[in-house]
Amino acid sequence: MVNSMTGFASASGTAEGLDWTWEMRGVNARGLDIRLRLPEGIPGLEPRVRAAVVERVARGNVTIGLRLRRAEGAAVGRLDSDRLAAALDALCTVRAEAERRGLALGPDTPASVLGLRGVFEPGGEADAELTPDMLAASLDTLLADFVAMRAEEGAALQRILIGQLDMVAELLTCAQDAAALRAEETEENFRAALARVTGNAEGVEPQRIAQELAVMAVKADVTEEFDRLDAHVAAARDLLGAGGPVGRRLDFLTQEFNREANTLCSKSGHEALTRIGLDLKAVIDQMREQVQNVE
């Protein structure tokens, strides 16, 4: 089974009063390109994520992002009741002494009281509280879902490619039949053209006509193109059956398919054979577009 390079997955988790969400996207690329968008302050997370991706993905442009937020209802800090009471007592003492001396003090606010040392200890930064181990389970889920989607897309691609290979094989059979008819028509057309030039084709030596027909047959022979196309079809079927990361080899094969189809059209010299050659090129182009998404 082959895999597609296209895929998407997400996973989430919670720990230590934090919620997080992973997102992973993949599109086609010539090699493996990993782009990470991770919060700072989680030591060892980036190399761990890269290693996990490399272990499961062979090819594609892969982007992974991680978003953090504090869980709803999670404590955002700790209020020290004893220090708060001591701070309020101290403020009352200060205000009373200031009034006794005739000094006017501005009003105190809850924020100013909470800002006094030791009264309120805010929670740390969200990403500083996490470790790669806390994120490991959700990361594994993310990668498993991503690989599963690529496999599902790959199965669909494989069915399409097998259908296109069947079309190529069918057109190749039609081309071989057309080439057999072309040999008969070539001789008739040559004799007709010779008659127009000489006025009497029967007056030309049969040996000379046979030599010219032999030269024309050699120049227009497409047996090798048929054999190569047939071999390419077999090789492509084998690759699809083997599965794994075969996208690059399939891409090379489609280029060879196209090369042989071009040569077939250029050597055709026959309307029916040329038409089949053009149909071959159309199917090969469609196949090559699909191959671009195979891992």
Report on the architecture of this protein.
Strands 1-2-4-3 form a 4-stranded mixed beta sheet, with helices on one face. The model is unreliable at 124-128 (pLDDT under 50). Helix 1 (45-56) packs across helix 4, helix 4 runs antiparallel to helix 6 (223-242) and helix 7 (247-268) packs antiparallel against helix 8. The longest helix is centred in the middle third of the chain and has 67 residues, at 132-198. It has helices spanning 45-56, 81-100, 110-114, 132-198, 206-220, 223-242, 247-268, 271-291; strands spanning 7-15, 18-27, 32-37, 60-70, 77-79, 120-122. The chain has 8 helices and 6 strands; from the N terminus they run E-E-E-H-E-E-H-H-E-H-H-H-H-H. It folds into 3 domains: 7-73 and 130-149, Ribosomal Protein S5, domain 2 (2-Layer Sandwich), CATH 3.30.230; 77-122, no CATH class; 151-291. By secondary structure, the chain is of the alpha+beta class. Helix content is 62%, strand content 14%.
